[in-house]
Amino acid sequence: MKFLVINGPNLNMMHFTEPGVAGQLDYNGLLDYLELCCTQMGMEVEFFQSNHEGDLIDEIQSAAGRADGIILNPGGYAHYSVAILDALRLCGVPAVEVLLSEPDEHEPFRKTDVVSFGCQGHFIGEGISGYLHAAAYLAQLLRLDGSAHTHLVM
Ligand SMILES: O=C1C[C@@](O)(C(=O)O)C[C@@H](O)[C@@H]1O
């Protein structure tokens, strides 16, 4: 089963806390951590990050036939990109959203999440564990409806 992990603007500049470990990971450290954990769970992952809305949309559109599911942290686009929402609805690949932090703990304008309407699951405010919970959830979803199996056979 293969997942495409898409991270939106500014995620490449952030630092992340690994559960139970002192210190912080940079973006490449995050990718190494996620790849290791997903490999241990028997999943293949591919990563994409962009600061540009159109590039994120191109990546979502190209997911069909290449990945069984999308794990998306849209960054600030979560709050207003109807275009990313449309791409998720059109691409035919199930997507799960991850937001590292809880929007309620930030400015009121972050309470709206338009991209969430294109996602079949949401892991919000769990830090980087959200990516792993999203992967496990997607795997379960795909096993239940058989799409991943169909895709692999094709
Ligand atoms: O870029 C980010 C990070 C974020 O996507 C998160 O994962 O918590 C939440 C967004 O509101 C913010 O703009």
Automatic annotation (TrEMBL):
Pfam families: DHquinase_II. SUPFAM superfamilies: Type II 3-dehydroquinate dehydratase. Pathway: Metabolic intermediate biosynthesis; chorismate biosynthesis; chorismate from D-erythrose 4-phosphate and phosphoenolpyruvate: step 3/7. It catalyses: 3-dehydroquinate = 3-dehydroshikimate + H2O. Its EC number is 4.2.1.10. Substrate binds at residues 73, 79, 86, 100-101, 110. It is an enzyme of class 4 (lyase). It comes from the Bacteria. InterPro entries: DHquinase_II, DHquinase_II_sf. One of its GO terms (molecular function) is 3-dehydroquinate dehydratase activity. Belongs to the type-II 3-dehydroquinase family. Homododecamer. Catalyzes a trans-dehydration via an enolate intermediate. This is 3-dehydroquinate dehydratase. It comes from Faecalibacterium longum.
